[in-house]
């Protein structure tokens, strides 16, 4: 999965959604279609160890430093996309799924 380096605006917001959903699906061995914006990481099967692995993956793919409590502070895909989007300077209306 490609990272998000070099993208801006709507392209960055859309790619960020894809990266978060794809990363969750890959880590938890799910289909991306089964991971929606309101999906809770806990309900999808993510525990504390997987949460730390997910943080590591997202840091590498997004190029930002993220808290060890990331999945507990931002427990849904939509919340995660919004948070990382803010860190990357994505306007709120471009970071959230439509």
Q: For the terminal residues, how far apart are their CA atoms? A: 22 Å
Order of helices and strands: HHHHHH
The major β-sheet equals: none
What fraction of the residues are assigned to beta strands by DSSP? Answer: under 5%
Average per-residue pLDDT, rounded, comes to: 85
What structural class do helix, strand and pairing data support? Answer: mainly alpha
How many E-type strands? 0
Structure annotation, total helices: 6
Percent range for helical residues?
Answer: 55-70%
Overall body shape = globular
Rg for CA atoms: 12 Å
Low-confidence stretches: none
Summarize the structure.
The chain has 98 residues and is mainly alpha-helical.
